[in-house]
Specification:
alpha/beta; 35% helix; 9 helices; 258 residues
Length: 258
């Protein structure tokens, strides 16, 4: 059985560890040291690394981990990322510890950004490793893409099965939900989620993974066709138009200065 757990790194990064008790994979290892420590403590063999995009806090540990364990490293077809042994792009498939993952192109945060989607297996729900594109309660900043590009990427993720478990790369949930509450103040599901997340963080518990169903119900960046959200933007003087990509652009601009 596949076990998934976070390895904390830096201030708020999660390096995701997937293991079967013997072999393991990690996702977006920005720092090798905490990964190697866990490998040694657990007696795990690192066979695979998945990379979603080129930012240093996602790739900074690649060279040390390659030297330590010689794993296969899957990542975007971006020559700027040193250490990718198996470049992949949209539509490619790969196997990680017996589970098949499909590569999705999700540009916007960066132009090379990809995500890894694993379909349901027996009683296990689908899995999504989405880096910095979709966050619990939010989404990544647009460092390289445009609002229509980012909105299209998020819409593709929102169309995944509702029970898909969403493994993003940062513990940003409380801050994201504070903004969500300002943007979507009458959303009862969001208010309930905010209270639950506060309890989790008070116990220093991760708020990730989330699910696509939860994100559709509470994440304003996946709710760009909701009349209540559009009305809220108008009340706040943030409205840029009713088209979904315009609603997204207004929300992202507001969040950037929130």
């Amino acid at each position: 059985m596949l076990t998934i757990e976070p390895i904390p790194a830096f201030n708020d990064n999660y390096i995701w560890l997937l293991h079967d008790g013997t072999a393991c994979a990690v996702v977006d290892p920005g720092d090798a040291e905490p990964v190697i420590r866990v490998l040694q403590q657990r007696g795990l063999q690192l066979t695979t690394i998945l990379v979603t995009h080129h930012h240093f806090d996602h790739v900074g540990g690649l060279s040390a981990l390659l030297a330590y364990a010689q794993p296969r490293v899957y990542g975007p077809e971006n020559p700027a990322i040193a250490g990718i042994t198996h470049p992949v792009g949209a539509g490619d498939s790969l196997e990680v510890l017996g589970r098949t993952f499909k590569v999705l192109a999700v540009p916007g945060h960066t132009l090379d950004h990809i995500a890894y989607f694993g379909g349901a297996v027996d009683a296990s729900p689908p899995l999504l490793f989405c880096g910095d594109t979709l966050f619990a309660g939010g989404c990544g900043r647009m460092f390289e893409g445009t609002a229509p590009v980012m909105h299209a990427s998020l819409s593709a993720l929102a169309a995944l099965p509702p029970d898909t478990q969403v493994y993003c790369a940062h513990e940003y949930t409380q801050a994201n939900l504070r903004f969500a509450g300002a943007a979507d103040p009458d959303n009862a599901a969001l208010a309930e989620r905010t209270r639950g997340v506060a309890r989790q963080r008070a116990q220093n518990e991760p708020t990730v993974p989330s699910s696509i169903a939860v994100e559709r119900a509470t994440n304003p960046f996946l709710r760009c066709t909701e009349p209540a959200l559009i009305a809220s933007l108008k009340r706040q003087g943030k409205w840029q138009g009713d088209a979904p990509e315009s609603v997204f652009a207004a929300l992202r601009s507001w969040k950037d200065e929130f």
